[in-house]
Specification:
The complex is a heterodimer. Chain A has two domains: 32-76 and 184-254 and 345-412, 3-Layer(bba) Sandwich (FAD/NAD(P)-binding domain), CATH 3.50.50.60; 116-178 and 256-342, D-Amino Acid Oxidase, Chain A, domain 2 (2-Layer Sandwich), CATH 3.30.9.10. Chain A is built from 13 helices and 19 strands. Chain A has helices at residues 7-16, 42-55, 72-75, 87-101, 103-107, 125-140, 150-156, 184-197, 241-247, 310-323, 372-385, 399-402, 409-412; strands at residues 35-38, 60-63, 79-80, 118-122, 146-148, 172-176, 180-181, 201-203, 208-214, 217-223, 226-229, 233-235, 255-264, 274-277, 282-286, 292-298, 332-342, 349-352, 358-362. Chain A has an eight-stranded mixed beta sheet with strand order 5-6-4-14-15-16-13-17, with helices on both faces. A six-stranded mixed beta sheet of chain A has the order 8-2-1-12-19-18, with helices on both faces. In chain A, strand 9 and strand 10 form a beta hairpin. Chain B has helices at residues 34-42, 100-104; strands at residues 3-6, 10-13, 18-22, 50-56, 64-70, 76-78. Chain B has one domain: Folate-binding fold. Chain B is α+β, with helices and mostly antiparallel strands. The chains are: A alpha/beta, B alpha+beta.
Chain lengths: 416, 105
């Protein structure tokens, strides 16, 4: 069992300066597991954690072809919120926010969740109307959201240009106080540590190269390190989810698009809320270290490339300065890209597939990180009980064939 | 950023183009089943590697063109002439066999 972290234990180890215990262990690949999870990101690790904690299923392997948390879970802009548009979406993400609120104490790992409030700006009448719609849907589901005007925005974000002299004047905003930012790596590591402590095996650098399906049932997976027999395979990948699913003969309605982000040099804290503008295709927050983190819309063509582009930085800078002209002298430190699996309705795909035992938790587009805990909890319940929890019953793969899409484009994305 | 070889304008920056989707065979709307049509609409190949796709040259000749692109490296090359594709084709139409419905539009 992993030793508990405390201020005292950190101080004493810090002073001795060596023999830090591994947060998760390495293992040989066993020939059989009760369940195999593909993808050691927040979704896969959370599913493994809740399988062990809530359902006592511990003979589980989490496989990743690269290092833990190196995909979307380590590349997102770490924004947490639940102010979605559809009741299904609001309920689902609200459960995730609730889990995030107690995650640090549950995992005994400081995930640095800061509920500093979240502003979605409206620059025209139609987006103001959507903000009102979202606020009412949110309130009906018990989620704190309200439409506020330019004066209140100015008091929350003094550096914002709310004058009418801009190209896209700010008419109002959807203010969502429970929203905020988190340390995404800490969430990944905390779940990994918690799962490992309960017997889950995490196998990094173990690529799945085949999925054995016999008579419509999953029998096992072939990996770069050998064969595993298992009755349950859970696909928790992002970027490559459609290709991994095709190994089991399951086709997904997914296009993979890169999403770029950038971070500036650190400055004294001046921005205490998350600011999002759909019209300007940008979202901004300031980390505890003082860096400004920027995200934007996905690149306008599918690609598996994670190279940044100059066009992105140029457009981003223009849009950010439209909002906050006073930060013009700030320098961009670095930029990067992550891969987003976009679905036709901007909602994820969770649940069973035509192949028995092959489950998916995919299609997370640009909003996967904030859903990690609740998706893990729900998928663990599905694996353990064989029944799809109500919370995710609106998001099956079959909805595309049945014509029951859950349209979240208005609330899930900027500038698509 | 990368360049796209436009058969009319030559290689131009990708920012001049709009991505129109994978080149695919559109099923005949008169005989297709609902399942086939939804599979055509939603289930992309989403290839990691070389794939053939349609782009619209909005800031150039304003024509729809067919291009091959490696989705991992974003290298591009003209769509293979071996398929008989002399003229670029409209989205959804098969190379070298223009779809009657889409050309009439």
């Amino acid at each position: 069992m992993t030793a508990r972290y405390s201020a005292l234990s950190l101080l004493s180890r810090g002073l001795r300066g060596r023999n830090w215990p591994l947060v998760w262990r390495r293992h040989e690949l066993a020939p059989t597991y009760d369940a195999v999870i593909i993808g050691a990101g927040v979704h896969g690790l959370a599913a493994a954690y809740y399988l062990a904690v809530n359902h006592g299923i511990r003979n589980v392997a989490v496989l990743d072809r690269s290092y833990l948390g190196g995909g979307g879970s380590g590349r997102n802009t770490a924004i947490i919120r639940s102010n979605y548009l559809t009741p299904e979406g609001v309920r689902f993400y609200d459960r995730s926010v609730k889990l995030y609120e107690t995650l640090a104490s549950e995992l005994n790992f400081n995930v640095m969740f800061s509920q500093r409030g979240h502003l979605t700006l409206a620059h025209n009448d139609s987006s103001l109307r959507t903000m009102r719609w979202r606020a009412e849907v949110n309130k009906l589901q018990g989620v704190d959201s309200e439409v506020i005007g330019p004066d209140e925005i100015k008091s929350l974000v003094p550096y914002m240009d709310v004058s009418a002299q801009t190209r896209y004047p700010i008419l109002g905003a959807l203010y969502h106080p429970p929203g905020g930012i988190i340390r995404h790596d800490a969430v990944n590591w905390g779940y990994a540590r918690g799962a490992d402590a309960r017997g889950v095996q995490i196998h990094e650098y173990t690529e799945v190269v085949g999925i054995d399906v016999e008579e419509g049932r999953v029998r096992g997976v072939q990996t770069s390190r050998g064969h595993i027999s298992t009755p349950v395979v859970l696909n928790c990948t992002a970027g490559w989810s459609s290709l991994v699913s095709r190994l089991a003969g399951v086709r997904l309605p997914i296009s993979t698009h890169p999403l770029q982000a950038a971070v500036t040099e650190p400055v004294k804290v001046f921005l205490n809320t998350v600011v999002v503008s759909g019209t300007l295709h940008v979202y901004v927050s300031q980390t505890d270290r003082g860096e400004l983190v920027f995200g934007a819309s996905t690149d306008p063509y599918p690609s598996y490339s994670t190279r940044g582009s100059l066009e992105f930085t140029e457009e981003l800078a223009g849009h950010v300065l439209e909002l906050m002209p006073s930060i013009a002298a700030l320098r961009v430190l670095r930029q990067w890209a992550g891969l987003c699996d976009m679905t036709p309705d901007f909602s994820p795909i969770m649940g069973e597939t035509p192949v028995e035992g092959f489950l998916v938790d995919v299609g997370w587009g640009t909003y996967g990180f904030k859903a990690g805990p609740v998706a893990g909890e729900a998928m663990a319940e599905l694996v353990a009980t064989g029944k799809t929890p109500d919370l995710i019953s609106s998001f099956p793969l079959s909805r595309f064939a049945d014509g029951r899409l859950v349209g979240e484009k208005g609330a899930a994305a900027v500038g698509h | 950023m990368f360049r796209i070889p436009c058969p009319y304008c030559g290689p131009r920056d990708a920012t001049e183009f709009r991505h129109q989707g994978e080149s695919r065979n559109r099923p005949d709307p008169r005989t297709v089943t609902r399942g086939q049509w939804r599979a055509y609409l939603y289930e992309k190949d989403n290839v990691a590697g070389w794939t053939r796709e349609n782009w619209y040259h909005g800031v150039g000749c304003r024509r729809f063109i067919s291009v091959e692109r490696n989705t991992v490296t974003n290298e591009t090359r003209p769509a293979a002439a071996a398929a008989g594709a002399v003229d670029p084709v409209l989205p959804g139409a098969e190379a070298g066999a223009p779809d009657a419905d889409s050309t009439r539009r």
